[in-house]
Specification:
The chain has 3 domains: 96 residues, Conserved hypothetical protein from pyrococcus furiosus pfu- 392566-001, ParB domain (Alpha-Beta Complex), CATH 3.90.1530; 88 residues, no CATH class; 65 residues, no CATH class. The longest helix is centred in the middle third of the chain and has 28 residues. α1 packs across α2. It starts with 6 loop residues before the first strand and ends with a helix. Helices cover 52% and strands 8% of the residues. It has 342 residues and is of the alpha/beta class. The chain has a 5-stranded mixed sheet. The chain contains 14 helices and 5 strands.
């Protein structure tokens, strides 16, 4: 079927179609492919793939490789394909592949980052070729499509990405391979890996392995990473011990003095309250065992230091779980105290 836009819709033999070796997507989920294959076996291929003719009788996939693979699994001989009469230039074909995968959310963040890197390279090669061609013709070189150098902002302009988002993705490519594999496998997202930024490669691998093995709670990963950034020679084990010591420090044991309790506004407290005796509003140094009031002030001080911003979904869930337990403990204590007044 010849279309007005210069396209053809053909039933193309599957064995006459080749996948693009440079396409941005490198991971195909086998379970999802089998599900799509079952659907195709029952209902056929509803949406045609897009190809361009690479040689007489041969076609190169522009987008739709997943449907092509699933059709093979389903045992089909042909697949509906939109064929363009003209060949794509390499940049245009690659942009369409990246955009199609982005819109369908089929690209993991590592493949997305690698695609951005390749797209910038292709765009730069096109600019350089344009400059050489115009220079060879003796004409003045100007009005190139992206000027002399392709910046990340110009790459983002082709895909609708902000420069900040591009840099976040590109940083993934500097991480150790095992962390990138976790992103490719859907275990981590790009956001989850930001905690590794600024660490040495050894620290990144060690922290990641401890995280994946369940040796660290999600709430512990960020403070441990903070300790590691401050001490590039520190190991994950040493940072974990420091964090555990800080968490287990109890004023009762006298290991460390309790943090100063919050200041009270004027008028609160009475003359018997040690805070009111000190015009600075700060509790004097403790002598002996802390009182119940001091313990609660110590808890309040630590709750006030809990980070509220920049949390991952897993960290937020863990914080909410712990806060619910604290809420139940507080409700139980209040019930006991209120009952003792009766």
């Amino acid at each position: 079927m010849e279309q007005a836009a210069g396209l053809q819709l053909l039933a193309v033999r599957l064995d006459a179609i080749d996948p693009d070796p440079d396409q941005p997507r490198s991971v195909f989920n086998e379970d999802a492919l089998r599900e799509l294959s079952d659907s195709i076996r029952q209902d056929g291929v509803i949406q045609p793939i897009e190809v361009t003719q690479s040689s007489p009788g041969r076609y190169l996939i522009v987008h739709g490789e997943r449907r092509w693979r699933a059709a093979q699994l389903a045992g089909l001989e042909t697949i509906p394909a939109v064929v363009r009469r003209r060949n794509y230039d390499e940049v245009t074909r690659f942009v369409r592949q990246v955009v199609e995968n982005i819109q369908r959310e089929d690209l993991n963040d590592v493949d997305r980052a690698a695609a951005l890197l390749r797209l910038r390279k292709l765009m730069q090669e096109e600019v350089d070729a344009t400059r050489r061609d115009r220079g060879a013709g003796g004409g003045e070189v100007k009005d190139e499509p992206w000027a002399g150098k392709v910046t990340w902002a110009k790459v983002g302009g082709r895909l609708g990405y902000s420069r900040q988002r591009i840099h976040q993705l590109i940083q993934l490519l500097d991480l150790p391979e095992e962390i990138k594999d976790a992103v490719r496998g859907g275990v981590l997202s790009e956001r989850d890996t930001r905690v590794y930024q600024g660490l040495t490669a050894v620290q990144q691998r060690s922290l990641h392995r401890a995280r994946m093995a369940g040796e660290l709670s999600q709430a512990d990963v960020r403070p441990i990473a903070r300790l590691l950034r401050e001490a590039p020679d520190m190991t994950v084990a040493a940072a974990t011990r420091l964090l555990q010591q800080a968490a287990s420090t109890d004023p009762v044991a006298g290991v460390s003095p309790a943090p100063p309790p919050p200041r009270f506004p004027a008028g609160e407290g009475d003359s018997s309250d040690t805070r009111a005796a000190d015009p600075s509003g700060i509790m004097p140094a403790r002598v002996g065992r802390p009182t119940s009031i001091e313990r609660l002030d110590w808890v309040r001080g630590h709750l006030a230091r809990v980070d509220r911003q920049g949390l991952t979904a897993a960290e937020r869930r863990e914080l909410l779980r712990l806060l619910r337990l604290i809420r139940d403990d507080v409700a139980s204590l209040m019930k006991a105290l209120e009952g003792s007044d009766e």
